Amino acid sequence: MTGAPPGPRTPAGAPGARGEPGAGAAPPKFAVAARAALADTGLRRGLRAGAAAVRERRSAAPEPADWEDLREAGRAIRDGALLGLDAHLEELERAVTEAGGRVHWAAGAAEARRIVTGLVRAAGAAEVVKSTSAVAREIGLNGALARAGVAVRETGFAELVAQLAEDDPEGPAPYRDRARIRELFARRLPGAAGGPPGDPAALAEAARLHLRERFLGARVAVTGANFLVAETGTVVLLESEGNARMCLTLPDTLICVAGIEKVVPAWADMEVLLQLLPRSASGAPMTPYVSSWTGVTAGDGPREFHLVLLDNGRTKALADEVGRAALRCIGCSACLDVCPVYERTGPAPYGPVRAGPIGAILTPQLRGVERAAEASLPFASTLCGACADVCPVKIDIPEVLVHLRGRVVESRRHRPVPTPELVLMRGLAWTMADPRRYEAAVRRGTRWARLMSRGGRIRRLPGLLGKWTEARDLPAPPPETFRAWWSRRHR
Amino acid sequence: MSSRDEMLRRVREALGGARGAPPEVPRRYERRLSAEDAAAGADVPALFGERVAENRAAVRHVGADELATAVAAALWGREAKQIVVPADLPFGWLAELDGVRAMADRPAIDVDALAAADGVVTGCAVAIAETGTVVLDGGPTQGRRVLTLLPAYHLCVVQAEQIVGTVPEAVGRLDPARPLTWISGPSAAYGADMPGAEGMHGPRHLEVLVVED
Amino acid sequence: MRVALFVACFDDALFPATGRAVTALLERLGHDVSYPPGQTCCGQMHWTTGYHREAAGLARAFTAAFEGAEAIVAPSASCAAAVRDAYPRIARAARDAALARAAEELAVYELTEFLVDVLGVTDVGAYFPHRVTYHPSCQSARTLGVADRPLRLLRAVKGLDLVELPAAQECCGFGGAFAMKNADVSVAMVADKVRHVRDTGADVVCAVDNGCLAHIGGALSRLRGGVRVMHLAEILAGTGPA
């Protein structure tokens, strides 16, 4: 959705901006990437202000009385969509085709890039207008189009700003306040003569003027989708800025790229999802614009419509009985809005697929947990559960996080050299399995810990526990455990 | 094997025994306005008017015999000189225009002329009280999508009987085969430190006339 | 009533005063307290860190140690949540139907649930003449849903001046292994929590989880915060001039 909080930025379209996702230098672990984000005081200020604004919006717009019933229905609708996904996809293809559209199937990111690039070339366009699409970011579409000599014009405000600033799509997303955006616009938008003043309306006006020309001249547009209705072949798209409306109305050719999980069985299901998504995304009862189209309509809008259906790891997630719940996601970003970790790190440490708690459970499933970056994502949470409380389709994010932690551990269990953590955790489990071993270990540990303490506090611990004492003390263990006290008392 | 067949095969394999056993959807949510909502709004058009206003759009309730005057007054208030209208807009709606040139979308107006227009007047297919939404489906009095997209001002005429209480009622009335546009207030940019930046790409101003007898 | 105490391994070694307080409190209320000696660790840490096989082993040992107990009471919301909420999942992951059945038999309560719901008391006859604020730990508030039970107990304590904690529902950043694996984010979170605690002007911040309290207390101590951390049970166990 265009109204979502700042997500990982879309590539600026520079050649080689991102080839095959996953190629090149290994991305850093969450904790390492988070350090840079934590050091960016501007970003933290912006995130904090954003989180406060969301909290205010939420408390200003009380949930409707039937909210829990809507969530239950939403969960069941999305589960039904996934459990019958093969039949729904075939039905969707039939309905889209009958309505004059064309459906393309992309098993992976490379195939999706190839299909879209081919369609743009076939239309003879050297430029495309593009509205916000998480899937386009996931498959590195902008880079591919740029390599094919196609200029990509981002039309969402946040994406436009990132494109003008030539942000590194893989690097941390810098926070920009209005003054910085104004400065950027003055430098990069020739139309904004003398630089617009720093009020939001003037910035919006500058973006409007800059993009209006692009829209009016555009021949091909690329968009994402919020829902694909199998029964009728209808694409549904929600947004607040109006740029997606421009994209799906003005050009001759419309290309929509969407993950296969976006399917919902029936048009009637929209009566639930069009209540859940707007409220969860912004607190408002309805998003400013909801557009839907079914194939092509003579005399109104594009003459050609292409729907590109993407797998790219989704069927792997679908195969996981616990993990598949992540595919219920309807992309509202409510879990990001309430996440205390996201509030402090912003989107960058989660990588380019999806940020926040949903990204922490989706990315490792789509990309696998072999690399340290993806393997670290399920651990990027305190399991506080704030996300599950607000999820409109009741994804139990903490449950999936713990499940995926198990997968990460299993995937590393049989390495020739066991990880230090595995050795420690196995050792602990062995010790804890027997009360006498446990007692002896606690006695030993207590003795050591007391030797390390000063004034009843431990200020520095060795090994894995050293991370604790970097910024926190630990109380020295008292000489007598509860267990020892109990047995002394009952002797 | 084509990618299509491969993807469908993967889906079937992934689901295994769970495949095709959709859970019953519990539809206990409200399909019509709850008693409190209806009472708070006194009646459906009044609630609709309140919610449209909350969406930062202007709204006026007018009698059927006042409509032409109200349309003229609204356009006069925006200092509109040149407007566009769907080809089938009832002539009576524009009967009181004074000093405003209305261009009908037949033959199709080109995009530059649309972008240069001061406003557009349309009807709608359905309106939703609880969300303050007007829905256009390209049917009578509405025209092509682009008509309500490029001009900076959209004046939308809603007949009281077109207003339903809830989203489920609206979804039931609409035909998804038609190009649908749900409009709830003017366009806006959220996030990115842009509070209240209205009028990004769609019309900057939305005004709704609710016609009641 | 016969109450079987479940003292988390962490509490056993680092915060034995909590277990002693629960013992004193329940005995004062006239109940028969026991401490099943077979207990060691409930397996929560292994489960949430991804060592699910090890967690299953510890869960089996736990259910054996507490088999047949009338009521199991834990002064740790996260450990009570592990047994009640995670054991069925641990059993499912291990495909261990016997463990699932055994877990279902366990009647485990977090202390404030036990006091308010089972014993039906909110005034436990405590006296604690201090200014106190309460941090609702995530496992107590979200997983167990103890809601305002701790606050009702605190309000009934004589001499106690209860002050509201701003942004109380926000996680303190402990999260078990999270505090080590994502130490920087964890510290950024606890810094905000500590700021809110200090803003209340309280002498004591209390909770029903010693993990969170060790985290908050560790940061307060490093910052010389001047605010003590205390488990709620230790406040409820306190008596003084009646």
UniProtKB/TrEMBL annotation, chain A:
Domain (4Fe-4S ferredoxin-type): residue spans on this chain: 320-350
Signal peptide start and end residues: none
Biased composition (Low complexity): 10-28
Alphabetical list of Pfam families matching this protein: Fer4_8 (PF13183), LUD_dom (PF02589), LutB_C (PF11870)
GO BP, one annotated term: lactate metabolic process
A GO molecular-function annotation: metal ion binding
InterPro entries the record matches: 4Fe4S_Fe-S-bd, 4Fe4S_Fe_S_CS, FTHF_cligase-like_sf, Helical_ferredxn, LUD_dom, LutB/LldF, LutB_C, NagB/RpiA_transferase-like
UniProt region (Disordered), positions on chain: 1-28
Transmembrane segments: none
Record's protein name: DUF3390 domain-containing protein
Record organism: Actinomadura physcomitrii
UniProtKB/TrEMBL annotation, chain C:
Cysteine-rich domain ranges (all copies): 3-83, 132-216
Gene Ontology terms for molecular function: oxidoreductase activity
InterPro entries: Cys_rich_dom
Protein name per its UniProtKB record: (Fe-S)-binding protein
Gene Ontology terms: cellular component: cytosol
